[in-house]
């Protein structure tokens, strides 16, 4: 089974331009408790390098692009986020890395839980151990 799972955001466009509405439990498959966005990422910087114990997320590049790597401890897949109408679902216990941010990249992330540092798994060997591959 692929780690890459998309959610489509129907664009509500008209002759003025485009609009996307994100609704909890509708376009986004969970109750959104937190929204954050990453922007102004310096060239050559990679982010992430962690997994979560209990957190569902949807990531969408509203502007620009970045390369997302997802890893379940056994398989590693990568995908480009480069569309404001496609969100990538990132489940818990999935290692994620973000690379190759374009200068204009604004990466919006919707999360099912409030921020909790204790929910992070920041060591890849710990992650593999938890996954017990
Ligand atoms: P971090 O999760 O390490 O960023 P990334 O995984 O994208 O590289 O977060 C960077 C800092 O921001 C860290 O000090 C934690 C803080 N932070 C919050 O306070 N709230 C949040 O919702 C997030 C995502 C991060």
What do these coordinates show?
This protein is mainly beta. It is 6% helix and 40% strand. It has a single domain, classed as Jelly Rolls (Sandwich). The protein is built from 1 helix and 10 strands, in the order ββββββββββα. The strands form 2 sheets. It has a 5-stranded antiparallel sheet, with no helix packed on it. The chain has a 5-stranded antiparallel sheet with strand order 6-5-8-3-10. Strand 5 (66-71) and strand 6 (76-81) form a beta hairpin. The protein is globular. The structure holds thymidine-5'-diphosphate.
Bound molecules: thymidine-5'-diphosphate
- The tally of structural domains comes to 1
Shape: globular
- The percentage helix is under 10%
Share of residues in strands: 35-45%
Please compute the radius of gyration using only Cα atoms: 15 Å
CATH class: Mainly Beta
CATH architecture: Sandwich
- Enumerate how many helices there are, as a single number: 1
Task: Report the major sheet.
Answer: 5 strands, antiparallel
In the CATH hierarchy, what is the superfamily? Answer: Jelly Rolls
**Strand line-up of the largest beta sheet:** 1-7-4-9-2
Kindly, what is the distance between the CA atoms of the first and last residues, rounded to a whole number of angstroms? 16 Å
Q: What is the structural class?
A: mainly beta
